[in-house]
From TrEMBL:
Gene3D superfamilies: Transferase(Phosphotransferase) domain 1. It comes from Anisodus tanguticus. Pfam families: Pkinase (PF00069). This is Protein kinase domain-containing protein. One of its GO terms (molecular function) is ATP binding. InterPro entries: Kinase-like_dom_sf, OCM_Kinase, Prot_kinase_dom.
Amino acid sequence: MRAYEGLVGDKMARLKGGKLQLPDVLRYGIELAKVIQELHSMNVLVLNLKPTNFLVNEHDEVFLGDFGIPHLLFGVQPPDSDIILRLGTPNYMAPEQWEPEVRGPITWETDAWGFGCSIIEMLTGVQPWFGKSVQDMYRSVVINQEKPQVPGGLPTSIENVLNGCFEYDLRNRPLMVDILQAFERSLSLSLSLKPHPHP
């Protein structure tokens, strides 16, 4: 059993304003996208992506922790809508997670929504739909087709891919490979723009 220093959520709680710096968010996003992509290749959906499920080791590398739900195999539909209570955490749930039989199927792109919510929380220090009741979240996401607010001032490719994560029609959402490319591009660009100290 590997030892972990703690959770990304705990790390955020210790920081002023609860938010992480963009380079850290990009780095964590890359590591998470790679793991999610690997799980998807094994026909496993995560469906419960959130900073309190991301473990950090002593090298500040991030890992996917307890999913908190049964691993759902691709194409298997839940038998009834009561299972939705076990299909994720309301603040991070895509429209089809709320109503699998109406808006489904639950698929790879469902994880893109949860990924996007997690990244926004890391950037802002605020949970999506913070302070809303479960019913209000359902109304916002499913009925009103509202999207979590993407903060301004981000690299264009990150802003675009995050907005894409919240497409109401899951067929228009990016796959993990697209998300990974955008994050890797932005991280290498931000590192190359960093001023280097003179010798």
